[in-house]
Write a structure and sequence with these properties.
The complex is a heterotrimer. By secondary structure, chain A is an all-alpha fold. Chain A has one domain (91-363). In chain A, 68% of the residues lie in helices and 0% in strands. Chain A has helices at 2-15, 26-58, 74-84, 95-112, 130-138, 140-151, 155-186, 191-196, 202-205, 207-220, 245-270, 281-302, 308-336, 342-363. In chain A, helix 10 packs antiparallel against helix 11 (245-270). Chain B is α/β, with parallel strands linked by helices. In chain B, strands 1, 2, 3, 4, 5 and 6 form a 6-stranded mixed β-sheet that branches. The longest helix of chain B is centred in the C-terminal third of the chain and has 12 residues, at 106-117. In chain C, the strands form 3 sheets. Chain C has a 3-stranded antiparallel β-sheet. In chain C, strands 6-7-8 form a 3-stranded antiparallel β-sheet. The chains are: A mainly alpha, B alpha/beta, C alpha+beta. Chains in contact: A-C, B-C. At the A-C interface, helix 7, helix 12 and helix 13 of A face strand 3, helix 4, helix 5, helix 7 and helix 14 of C.
Chain lengths: 373, 146, 367
């Protein structure tokens, strides 16, 4: 614990190294790239373990418990198995696109972590447009998913890929609008600044924003109840139906890394990031990420799946108006309320959230949806 | 208890409606002529007295000389039942009228009889094999199939 | 400018997670909307009707296990009822009660799978399914006690049942009867009023009352459409006329109604088992029936209310040791007749849950 803490501190020291040091700032980038990849891979393995064991508990069964103590080595065994599997490419597949898709889907997810602070200043690149960068980069994954769906030459894959594109295009809007209301309070796009500004976690100041971001985030990264890009009971496995071996592993990794990325961004934006008493900051950060992910696992085991038109209706009729209203209210509050009285804002925002959600659930009915053909 | 209607009474009624159509009113089933089968079943379905709105099942039996096709009729409203049978002779191309315009429940069952027994149902919109593959030539439930 | 689109054909199955076996739907889709759908059967055709013509009357009972393998007790019963009708065999009182208990337990087990897999098709990722399997396991254990098998029981015999129940059966059944109502409440808590489930299943895949009768639908599919028709009441077989129970029915005939009818039927089955257990008389469980039974020339149609619907056996005897003809009226097959009417215009995701709500078993469809 202390060792890594020391490392992170010394990284700050490296960052301040004079440019005449051999390699200049390259050391910083090299070390952080290694740390990020290690962090993502380790936590993805941890997520797989949490998801499988947690789901086991929730579903009145045991879950994997044979490999290693408490089944801890199950993700390792899975990884080895999946890497040794034969790589099958369909005859009619667009070979290049099929090959390129997992890479394009995975790389942007890893790039998101470049701006996520693990501790004050412990960032690969503290971009002053950090959150904008996250939004821009994370939607590139969809291109990879669509390439997978198209390149597989499989109708199920194509259906899944088209659902994915439709969902991401729709859900990006409420996602960005809720981010905007956070940015409005902080006055900076840098993720490090956003964390530093959270003396009170923004989940209290922006309860509706948190809710909308969580829903939209889940929809964007294909978590239940919005997992219909790979709805196993409908379109088999969606875009990765035709993938096996290493390429499938990359998609699998990308899926969990996306969940990790969204959890990390939720932690950073709404849960005060690395800030917390007693424990070292990176541990706080990891703990919060795991808690957010656990909520995602929870919804996965609890809720049935929505349909594609209901998914779109939810984005445009529910999330978008609420996100706009939230942005407006936040703007008014930032302008009028004195900054010294955050409790007023907290209470007002909670009241507004309850009111709006109740109101909209009266307006808004899913169901039906038969089309005359 | 579902009442099994008296075949004798129905036979006389049908004989009055369609003369010469009843072949043999046996103990528990009404054997009717192939030519007037459709009119009789239509009468049984639509007449308010019988009101056989529910076709429980269709099946066929191969007796070498002829195929006997058995219709189990029931009425949900009156809770009574009747077995109507008909015989079609000839092994090469036995044909019967399809019941699909009266009871759509006959759809898959007639296809199955066509598939396994080789009886053609005229007026069936999609009389193709159902359990065996297209292109299979025999009809396995016939007694001479080994 | 109008966008030029064209429909495409999607093969749902034969190997697909939600077709409950090897079933294929050739779906023509316009985007996600189903324009046309054509069911394709026959991947599990084993020719049971033909095989039955070569076997002795008692030798057919194991074959019937393989029809609807999720409810083999019911298949056994339907077959032995037909044979007993054909050969006019009396069944001891105790055997009749045991049959009712087993068949109702089997109905609970089958509905648990039916409801569980329906919810699974809705996308509730295996949670309700596994909860229901937990209780099905108890039923299967009890049926294992009496028959020594967990899936293909082969328990009923012509003129009774194969053996009397062991001593530990009734305590286990008693415990199960006490626990199960609580578990059914638990299933209701899981998803009964879940907003997403209501949005997905209410009003989806409506089978109107008239159409349901016209296509000869039976079982929960018919009752979900609001027709109060249950063979156990309409034409009581065995000793069903001695028990009190209700027939739950739906109102509109959508997927949600069919799901509710199944859940309510489980409660009614518990009621029947409870009464049967209290009235269970002592005595023999099997009457003397020759091994090579030669029923008189004639024919008989025995039908029961199996978990999937009306299961009937039509037997023709020529006074030999094997039936001349054995026809099986399979409810799963006939319930699928209106598949096209129910699915057209809905999305592919709805097609999956409509198919799941019909609750078919491929072993019975293809035979």
């Amino acid at each position: 614990m202390t060792i890594l803490n020391f490392n992170l501190n010394s990284i700050q020291y490296w960052q301040t190294l004079p440019p005449d040091w051999p390699g200049e700032f390259w050391w910083h980038w090299l070390v952080f790239t290694v740390i990020i990849i290690g962090f993502v891979l380790l936590l993805v393995m941890g997520f797989i373990y949490i998801e499988r064991r947690g789901m086991g508990r929730m579903q009145a069964r045991l879950g994997p418990n044979r490999t290693g103590p408490f089944g801890l080595l199950q993700p390792v065994a899975d990884a080895i198995k999946i890497l040794l599997k034969e790589d099958i490419v369909p005859t009619k597949a667009d070979k290049l696109v099929h090959w390129l898709a997992p890479v394009i889907a995975f790389a942007p997810v890893l790039m998101v972590f470049a701006v996520v602070p693990f501790q004050n200043g412990a960032v690969l690149a503290d971009l002053n447009i950090g959150i904008l960068y996250v939004v821009a980069i994370s939607s590139v994954t969809t291109v990879g998913i669509f390439m997978a769906g198209w390149g597989s030459s499989n109708k199920y894959s194509l259906l899944g890929a088209m659902r994915s594109v439709a969902a991401v295009v729709s859900y990006e809007i409420p996602l960005v609008l809720t981010i905007a209301s956070v940015v409005l309070i902080v006055g900076s796009l840098s993720l490090n600044q956003i964390v530093l500004a959270q003396d009170i976690p923004f989940i209290l100041l922006q309860p509706l924003g948190f809710l909308l971001y969580f829903i939209a985030g889940c929809a964007e990264i294909n978590r239940s109840p919005f997992d219909l890009f790979e709805a196993d009971s409908e379109i088999v496995a969606g875009f990765h139906t035709e993938y096996s071996g290493m390429k499938f592993a990359l998609f699998y990794l990308a899926e969990y890394a996306e969940a990790l990325a969204i959890s990390a961004i939720i932690t950073t934006l709404f849960l005060a990031g690395w800030r917390g008493p007693l424990l070292p900051p990176w541990l706080w950060f990891t703990l919060k990420v795991i808690i957010v992910f656990f909520v995602m696992v929870w919804t996965r085991t609890t809720l049935p799946r929505v349909r594609i038109d209901q998914l779109m209706a939810l984005a445009w009729k529910f999330l978008l108006p609420l996100a706009l209203i939230n942005l407006l209210i936040t703007g008014i509050e930032v302008l009028t309320l004195p900054a010294a009285l955050p409790w007023v804002m907290i209470l007002a925002n909670f009241a507004i959230m309850v009111l709006l959600v109740l109101l909209w659930s009266k307006f808004f009915r899913l169901g039906g949806g038969r089309v005359e053909v | 208890m579902t009442l099994a209607l008296s075949v004798k009474e129905i036979a006389t009624k049908i004989e009055g409606q369609f003369p010469g159509s009843v072949v043999e009113p046996s103990q528990d089933s009404l054997v009717v002529d192939r030519e007037s089968l459709f009119e009789i079943t239509q009468f049984l379905k639509t007449s308010p007295e019988f009101d056989f709105d529910y076709l429980t099942g269709i099946t066929a039996v191969d007796y070498y000389d002829y195929f006997e096709v058995v219709y189990h009729l029931a009425s949900i409203k009156h809770n009574h039942s009747l077995i109507v049978k008909t015989r079609c002779y000839g092994r090469d191309n036995p044909t019967l009228p399809s019941m699909i315009s009266l009871w759509r429940g006959a759809d898959f069952q007639e296809r199955e009889i066509y598939d396994l027994m080789g009886i053609h149902f005229e007026g069936h919109p999609n009389l193709t094999r159902i359990v065996l593959w297209q292109g299979f030539e025999e009809h396995p439930l016939r007694k001479d199939y080994w | 400018m109008a966008l030029r689109t064209e429909p495409f054909v999607l093969n749902v199955g034969p190997v697909h997670p939600s077709t409950h076996g090897v079933f294929r739907m050739r779906a023509t889709l316009d985007g996600e909307v189903i324009v046309n759908i054509e069911p394709v059967f026959g991947y599990l055709h084993r020719g049971i009707e033909k095989l039955a013509e070569e076997r002795t009357y008692s030798g057919i009972i194991p074959l019937t296990d393989r029809l609807d393998y999720l409810a083999s007790m019911s298949n056994n019963l339907a077959y032995v009822l037909a044979v007993e009708k054909l050969a006019e065999i009396e069944v001891p009182e105790r055997a009749e009660y045991l049959r009712v208990i087993m068949v109702e337990l089997q109905r609970i087990a089958s509905h648990l799978i039916g409801v569980g897999s329906f919810l699974n098709d809705c996308g509730a990722f295996f949670t309700p399914f596994l909860y229901m399997f937990r209780e099905r396991e108890k039923v299967v254990d009890m049926l294992d006690m009496v028959s020594g098998q967990r899936l293909t029981y082969n328990y009923m015999r012509i003129g009774g049942v194969s053996q009397d129940i062991p001593d530990e059966f009734l305590p286990a059944l008693d415990k199960f009867l006490k626990q199960m109502p609580g578990f059914i409440d638990e299933y209701d808590q899981l998803l009964k009023e879940n907003e997403i489930l209501l949005a997905r299943a209410k009003g989806v895949g409506i089978l109107p009352k008239e159409l349901a009768i016209n296509i000869s639908a039976s079982g929960p599919v018919l009752r979900g459409s609001g027709v109060k028709w249950d063979i156990r009441k309409a034409d009581p077989y065995s000793v069903y006329d001695r028990f009190e129970f209700d027939i739950p029915t739906g109102t509109v005939g959508d997927c949600y109604d069919r799901y509710r009818v199944r859940v309510e039927e489980m409660r009614q089955s518990l009621r029947i088992i409870k009464q049967a257990m209290e009235q269970l008389p002592p005595g023999a469980v099997r009457s003397e029936v020759p091994h090579l039974l030669r029923p008189p020339v004639g024919e008989a149609y025995g039908h029961i209310e199996s978990p999937k619907g009306e299961l009937g056996f039509y037997l023709v005897s020529d006074n030999s040791i094997a039936p001349y003809r054995c026809h099986i009226r399979a409810p799963s097959l006939i319930n699928l007749t209106a598949l096209r009417d129910m699915m057209i215009g809905w999305k592919i995701a709805d097609a999956i849950i409509i198919f799941g709500s019909i609750d078919v078993c491929m072993g019975e469809i293809d035979r």
